[in-house]
Amino acid sequence: MKPFQYLRPKTVSEAVSMALDNPEAQYIAGGTNLIDLMKRGIASPPKLIDINHLPLKKIEHRYDRIRIGALALNSDVAQHKLVKTRQPLLAEALLAGASGQIRNMATVGGNLLQRTRCSYFYDVALPCNKRKPGSGCGAEGGINRTHAIFFNGSEVPSCIAVHPSDMCVALAALDTSVVVAGPAGERRILFKDLHRLSTKEPEMDTTLNPGELITSIEVLDNAFTGHSHYLKVRDRASYAFALVSVAAALQMDGGKIWDARLALGGVAHKPWRYWAIELMLRGQPPSEKLFREVAEHELQSARAGEHNAYKIKLTANAMIAALKIAAGIS
Ligand SMILES: Cc1cc2nc3c(=O)[nH]c(=O)nc-3n(C[C@H](O)[C@H](O)[C@H](O)COP(=O)(O)OP(=O)(O)OC[C@H]3O[C@@H](n4cnc5c(N)ncnc54)[C@H](O)[C@@H]3O)c2cc1C
Ligand code: SF4
Question: What is the pLDDT of residues 179-192, one digit of tens each?
């Protein structure tokens, strides 16, 4: 690991100023991703801005939403009474991620900004457009078993890696905003606009501006409690990143679906929300036939590589299973 200078700001605005003064500096929270990247030579920030002492751990309900501080630990969020009762989909997704030990270190802000797990990204001897822009994509002609099947229209992507987070798939399905502090003060980013697709600049995972610090996320109240499910398919039950995951949430009344949310993990460069399917489900009585029809409809746009064609059927089956459990008809 290359030497770095350690900085410890006392306030959010001091942290932002430190980051703006040192464009290559990076914030560090739990360190469960960043330290790995530094040890492997993928990230080498000359300065680390340790944000762990900032007052950003609070989880509270305000007006019509839960506000979760960026430094709240993944384990604390998953076990918090407000989250378990008002947003059980989020609690389920968090508990499906990583291991107990890692969840005890990992923070909400770090989870949002964790980097891909593509093995070519982690091997500095191999080409990777995300790690070294313009060097090529090792996975494209290499082993692409865990890679994406959904892209930005027909454009050729410069990176076919998938977003690794479980938490983010639940947040994509819910009405979430990400609150950030920057040089011009505070701003809110709709969750759907936080992560980027990979057409031109795969090295840029998000739409954050230089120096911006995530201070919290806000999840709006909803009527999905009792009818949501997070389903994760992975190679190893103890802990592993998702091959495919589904966050399904339904608002049910009188035997019909009145509102629906569906997001997928492990299939695209960002958590993948299924807006069209949600419209198709509204007003319908739930059934396996309906869920199969909507899944097959959406998967017509999937594009597999040499080794990940299995994901198309797996995604359809996972969507149907998650929707059935959410609807209570399994
Ligand atoms: C063995 C292993 C297995 C795992 N399995 C899973 C899994 O199955 N599912 C899953 O979802 N995740 C998994 N993870 C990833 C884990 O969830 C992330 O490493 C963790 O959430 C990152 O949080 P952190 O606080 O440690 O972030 P850090 O490593 O401290 O930071 C990560 C990035 O976020 C930036 N950052 C952190 N906080 C902020 C902030 N407030 N504002 C702006 N930038 C910020 C840092 O600069 C850095 O770029 C696994 C990790 C490991 C090591
Ligand atoms: S898929 Fe993305 S992260 Fe993986 S090698 Fe290609 S450019 Fe790099």
Answer: 999 999 999 999 99
C-alpha 108 chain-centroid distance: 10
Instruction: State the closest ligand 2 atom to the C-alpha of 147, by its place in the atom list counted from 1.
Output: 1
CA 61/CA 66 separation, integer angstroms: 4
Query: Is there a single domain that holds both residue 35 and residue 161?
Result: no
Indicate whether 25 and 89 sit together in one domain: no
Q: How far is the CA of 229 from the centre of ligand 1 (A)?
A: 23
Q: How far apart are CA 258 and CA 250, in angstroms?
A: 7
Please report, for the domain that includes residue 108, its CATH number.
3.30.465.10
Is the distance from the beta carbon of residue 197 to the nearest atom of ligand 2 less than 6 Å?
no
CB atoms within 10 A of CB 200: 12
pTM of the shown model: 0.98
Does residue 150 sit in the same domain as residue 272? yes
